[in-house]
Amino acid sequence: MSILVVGSVAFDTIATPSGSVQDILGGAATYFSLAASYFTDVRVVAVVGEDFLPQHEAVLTRRGVDTRGIERAAGKTFRWGGQYLDNLNEAKTDFTDLNVFEKFQPRIPKEYLDTPFLFLANIHPALQTAVRLEMDGVKLTGGDTMNFWIKGTPKDLAATLKLVNVLLINDTETKMLAAEKNLLRAANKVLAMGPKALVVKHGEYGATIFFREGAFGIGSHPFRAPALPIDEVKDPTGAGDSFAGGFMGYIASQGEINREVLKRALFYGGVMGSFAVERFGTERLQNLTRGEIDARFQVFRELTHLE
Amino acid sequence: MSILVVGSVAFDTIATPSGSVQDILGGAATYFSLAASYFTDVRVVAVVGEDFLPQHEAVLTRRGVDTRGIERAAGKTFRWGGQYLDNLNEAKTDFTDLNVFEKFQPRIPKEYLDTPFLFLANIHPALQTAVRLEMDGVKLTGGDTMNFWIKGTPKDLAATLKLVNVLLINDTETKMLAAEKNLLRAANKVLAMGPKALVVKHGEYGATIFFREGAFGIGSHPFRAPALPIDEVKDPTGAGDSFAGGFMGYIASQGEINREVLKRALFYGGVMGSFAVERFGTERLQNLTRGEIDARFQVFRELTHLE
Asked: How far apart are the C-alpha atoms of A145 and B92, rounded to whole Å?
C-alpha cells in the first residue's frame, strides 16, 4: 500500500572527515522517499524554490516517487549547512536558510487523500496536525520531531502526539520530551502522550521499539534491532530519515501490522540508515537493489541471532 | 571447567540517584567471581587487609568460590569512593585509597596453576603478564584494562595484549587504545595487537564481539548482544566485571570454544551485568538462581530475535 511523506526538500552543504559537498539534494522528505521507494509506492508533499531543477526531481521520479505534491514557490529552496568534523554522531549547524520552507503550508493533492500510510517528517507540529486531520482514511501515521519543537512549541506538539501512532525520535529527544533521564521510563511517559509505539534511534547502536500496553494487540515487550558496525561513515546526514523510510516503507508494503512486521521493519530501518551513511547525501540510496537490501537485512539478522 | 580471576577486592562508598552506601564489599574480582559462580567453579587471587572479615569472605564462599588465593596483608583493604549523581554511565571518583592493593604481587597457589581458564581483571599490565606466564596450561585468557594503563604504561600493556586471548573493554577504551575514532577500525587495530577476540561493552546498548580473521576457526563476522532497557539502575558499579564474569564463566562451563558458545556467552555477560545494577554493590549477585538467569537470557534473546 502507498505511503505519503510530508516534509522538507533541501540543498545541503556538508563537511565530514571524509570530505565536503556543496548544495547537494537533501531534506527529510527526500531521504525518506528514496528509502521507502524500495518497499512501496511513495508520494511526497513538500515545497521547493526556483533552483529545484528537473535533474533534482529526476532523483525522485527515477525511483518511482510520485512528486505531484511538490509545490514550486517563488524564491530559493531551503538550504542547510553543517559539519561533523569532531563528532560523526552530532551535526554542528553552520547555517539554516529556510527560504521557501519558512512559509510552507502543506497542500495535499486530492489524489493523495486516500493514502493509507502517512509519515509526518520533522516540521512544525501544528502543520503535522493539520495534515493528519486532512487525511481521513489513514491507517497508520508515523512522525518525527526534534528538540526545537519539544522546547519551543510543546502545546502544538502535544496535540500532534495524540494523532501520531508511531513516533520515531532519538535517545536525547526521548529523554527531553519526557523530562526523564532513564530511557525505559522516558519511553513509557512518551507513550502516555499518545503514540501506540515509540521507536528510539540509538545511532550506531541500532534502535528500540517500545509499545503501549495493548497497542496493536501484540503485548508490551520492547524489541531492539542492532546496527552494523561500519568502517567508514562518510556522511551521517539523513540517516534518521532513511531509517524512517525503511521502517515505514516496509510496514506499508505488508499492509498488516503485527509484532513480526514491526520487528522486521525495525531491522529494515537500520539497513536503510546504514546504506545512507556510506556516501555523501542521497547517492547510495539512489542506486540500491532490493537484493542488496535483503542481503544486508540477513547480515543484521545474523549479527544478533542465536540458534 | 574452573576459572581463576586475579584482581581487586575493595570496599566501596557509592552515591547514585537511588541512594548511597558506605564501605560495602566490591572490587573487580568480587563482582567477577560472584557472576561466574553461577556457571562454573571459581578461584580468586587478590589481596585484602585486616578489615576483611569472615562475613566478607562468606559472601564468596557461600557461592562456592575458592578463596584460598586471597592474601591477607597488614593494613587496610583497597577503598574506592565514587558517585553517579549526574550520569549513571560514568563514575566520578571521590577518592581512591589503594592501601594493601598498592603493593599487590599476585601469588598463585600451587593448586591453582592448572586452572584452564584465566581472567586478568583490571590491574597493572605488568602484573597481568606475570600471572599469565606463570599459568602454563591455561586454555583461554580473558583480560580487562582501563584508560589509566592505556595512557600510563603502554609498553607493559602491549606485552600483556600479546598474551590475552579475549580482551573485554568499553567503547571509549577501545578507541583510546587504537587511537582511532571509528569503532570497527579501532577494533581491528586492537585485534592486531594480540587478542583473538575483542568484546566491546556498550553499557545500556549491549556489547559487540569482534574476531581476528581465522580466530577460533569461526570466521570474522562480529556478533552483537543487546542489553535490556532497565527502569531503575540503582548502582552501575561492577556492571562491567559482572559482564566479564558471566561471559567467561559461561565459556568455562562449556569447555569447547566455538562461535555459538561465544555468542551465548555475550548474552550471559549482558544478563549478569543487568542483574548487578539492580541493587547496590553485589547484593543482587549474591542471591540469584540459575533459573532467574536463564529466564532473563530468554528475554534478552527475544529482544532481538526474528523468526
From this structure: 33
Per-residue pLDDT of B116-170, as tens digits, reads 999 999 999 999 999 999 998 899 999 999 999 999 999 999 999 999 999 999 9
Q: How far is CA B210 from CA A178, A227, A241, B215, in A?
A: 35, 14, 29, 10
Neighbours of A214 (CB within 10 A): 10
Between chain A and chain B, how many beta carbons pairs sit less than 8 Å apart? Answer: 80
Q: Which residues pair with A95 in a beta bridge?
A: A81
Tell me the average pLDDT of chain A: 95
Residue B170's contacts (CB-CB under 8 Å, 6 or more residues apart) are B200, B201, B202, B203, B240
**pTM confidence score:** 0.92
ipTM here: 0.87
The x, y and z cell numbers of residue B23, run together, are 564501605
Report chain B's C-alpha Rg in angstroms: 18
Quick check: B264 and A184 CB within 8 A?
Answer: no
Across the interface, whether the CB atoms of B184 and A231 are under 8 A apart is answered yes
Q: Which three cell numbers stand for residue A213?
A: 500496553
User: Which residues of A fall below an 8 Å CB-CB distance to B?
Assistant: 88, 181-185, 187, 202, 204-206, 208, 210, 221-226, 229-233, 260, 263-264, 267, 299, 301-307
Asked if the model's pLDDT at residue A217 lies above 80, the reply is: no
- Among A185, A264, A304, beta carbon nearest to B224: A304
